[in-house]
């Protein structure tokens, strides 16, 4: 496919901009060389982008079981609400009294999300999950500093954690202590007890964890950390399995982030932007980033900066329209729909797991939560076909591959999260497609090394793309 720069004919253009209504620059300020822009008509531009759109794959194209990412359907009503001019056309510097509706929306979203998570206060500034983690860690640091405990320099992270957890802890200036998981995929309590001490600032944990298991020792885990004087941080990326059913606040967590772009149905994965609000218990609310929303004496809504705030972590109030989408989703599902979505997410994952484990080994036996991890280790040992090859093979079946090589504690991992928005027929079809592929891998491994063959581009050199990205067309 040609690039925009390779299309078009010199002199062709489309006049979609209104005439210039500001004074022209004096000639010496103007560029000497003509800007190298493509010369295209509106039709050509439109066709170009439509063609590009056909070459990508998204949740609206088909099954997208990307583990840990919760690629659920993004209801169109959310988009319609976020596009309302009263939300979309606001300016962040407008006086409070002109944006009372938007403030009310922020306050109500905060209230609902606090209820779902068992937190007391929340701030919407962080723009993603990892950004929320970093924010939460700065709050943990502010808390210990206020208590005069500067010696608390270590953050404990299970070895199954998402890579962003240790990365955020390191960025916040902490030393990361990794605790191993037991045979059962959950935190090894004895190892955890050995890891805590007077230098423990806190623990970061997601529950259900990244192998799709709910850690049944969670109360014991948070107690061990609290007894050592640390705080417990909940990575809320996996909340889709438990929302409306159990709450991180009741599990003993002090600070959390949510991924509105996962659990609460805002688009992500190239379709962003995201939102990673940070919530906390009462005692920590003074450290939240500011501004936060508050109710004023006259009953109207306004903003305030918490007493010992860590400061702003992003401009203004975060990605406001993502919060509008999450709010629309919360209202659409309601108090009954939220836990029902979680139950269906867990049901779908177990249904698919049951079908796949007839022929493919799982990393952990038994029932799972909203996702599960398969291992291609046996297959690789027998045939040379690796998790990567299987993932590429699935592309030819019109399925987005599961997450690959994560979590790191499982060899040749493929992590599957179907989400609640898939039908039984889709799951059946995906299971059959996967079975056929697995069979082909056993019988004709070389063929799978060639996959994909039906996609717009064949197997890409992902390492080179990451190491030597070519991000512009002209070099001058
Ligand atoms: C996605 C994810 C994150 C990071 O969230 P982003 O919004 O991608 O920054 C953290 N932890 C887990 C378990 C995740 O799945």
Description of the molecule:
This protein has 476 residues and is an alpha/beta fold. It folds into three domains: 4-54, no CATH class; 77-332, Aspartate Aminotransferase, domain 2; 337-465, Alpha-Beta Complex (Aspartate Aminotransferase, domain 1). 37% of the residues lie in helices and 11% in strands. It has 15 helices and twelve strands. It has helices spanning 42-55, 76-82, 85-88, 100-117, 129-146, 164-171, 189-195, 218-227, 248-251, 320-356, 377-383, 387-396, 424-443, 445-450, 462-467, and strands at residues 121-123, 154-158, 175-179, 200-205, 231-236, 255-258, 278-280, 292-295, 301-304, 372-375, 403-404, 413-416. The protein has a seven-stranded mixed beta sheet, sandwiched between helices. Helix 9 (248-251) links the parallel strand 5 (231-236) and strand 6 (255-258). Helix 2 (76-82) runs antiparallel to helix 10, helix 5 packs across helix 6 and helix 10 packs across helix 13. The longest helix is centred in the last third of the chain and has 37 residues, at 320-356. The radius of gyration is 25 Å and the shape is globular. The two termini are 24 Å apart. The mean pLDDT is 94. It binds pyridoxal-5'-phosphate. Pyridoxal-5'-phosphate is lined by residues 68, 128-130, 162, 164, 206, 210, 235, 237-238, 259, 274, 276. Residues 68, 128-130, 162, 164, 206, 210, 235, 237-238, 259, 274, 276 line the site of pyridoxal-5'-phosphate. GO terms for molecular function: glycine binding; glycine dehydrogenase (decarboxylating) activity; pyridoxal phosphate binding. Residues 38-294 form the Glycine cleavage system P-protein N-terminal domain.
């Amino acid at each position: 496919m040609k690039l925009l720069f390779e299309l078009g004919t010199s002199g062709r253009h489309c006049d979609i901009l209104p005439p210039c209504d500001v004074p022209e620059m004096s000639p010496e300020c103007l560029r000497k060389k003509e800007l190298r822009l493509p010369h295209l008509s509106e039709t050509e531009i439109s066709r170009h982008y439509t063609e590009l759109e056909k070459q990508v794959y998204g949740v609206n194209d088909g099954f997208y079981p990307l583990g840990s990412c919760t690629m659920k359907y993004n209801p169109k009503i959310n988009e319609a609400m976020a596009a309302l001019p009263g939300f979309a056309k606001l300016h962040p510097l407008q006086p409070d009294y002109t944006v009372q509706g938007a403030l009310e929306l922020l306050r109500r979203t905060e209230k609902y999300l606090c209820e779902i998570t068992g937190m007391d206060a929340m701030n919407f500034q962080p723009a993603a999950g990892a950004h929320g983690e970093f924010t939460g860690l700065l709050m943990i640091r502010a808390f210990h500093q206020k208590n005069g405990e500067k010696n608390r320099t270590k953050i404990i992270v299970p070895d199954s954690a998402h890579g962003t957890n240790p990365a955020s802890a390191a960025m916040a200036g902490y030393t990361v202590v990794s605790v191993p998981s037991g045979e059962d995929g959950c935190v090894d309590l004895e190892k955890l007890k050995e890891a805590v001490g007077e230098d423990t600032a806190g623990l970061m944990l997601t529950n259900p964890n990244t192998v799709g298991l709910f850690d049944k020792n969670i109360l014991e885990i948070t107690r061990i950390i609290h007894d050592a004087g640390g705080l417990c941080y909940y990575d809320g990326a996996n909340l889709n399995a438990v929302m409306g059913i159990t709450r991180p606040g009741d599990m003993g967590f002090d600070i959390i982030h949510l991924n509105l772009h996962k659990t609460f149905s805002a688009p992500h994965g190239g379709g962003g932007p995201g939102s990673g609000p940070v919530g906390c218990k009462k005692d920590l609310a003074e450290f939240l980033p500011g501004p936060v929303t508050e109710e004023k004496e006259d009953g109207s809504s306004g903003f305030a900066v918490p007493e010992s705030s860590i400061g702003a972590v992003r401009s203004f109030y975060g990605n406001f329209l993502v919060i509008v989408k999450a709010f629309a989703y919360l209202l659409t599902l309601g108090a009954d729909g939220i836990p029902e979505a979680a139950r269906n997410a867990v049901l779908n994952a177990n249904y698919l797991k049951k079908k796949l484990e007839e022929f493919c080994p799982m990393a952990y036996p038994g029932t799972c939560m909203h996702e599960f991890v398969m291992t291609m280790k046996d297959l690789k040992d027998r045939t040379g076909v690796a998790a990567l090859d299987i993932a590429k093979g699935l592309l030819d079946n019109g399925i987005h591959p599961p997450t690959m090589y994560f979590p790191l504690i499982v060899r040749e991992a493929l992590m599957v999260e179907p989400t609640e928005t898939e039908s039984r027929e889709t799951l059946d079809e995906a299971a059959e497609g996967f079975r056929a592929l697995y069979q082909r891998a056993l019988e004709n491994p070389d063929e799978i090394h060639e996959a994909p063959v039906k996609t717009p581009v064949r197997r890409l050199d992902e390492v080179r793309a990451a190491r030597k990205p070519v991000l512009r067309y002209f070099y001058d």
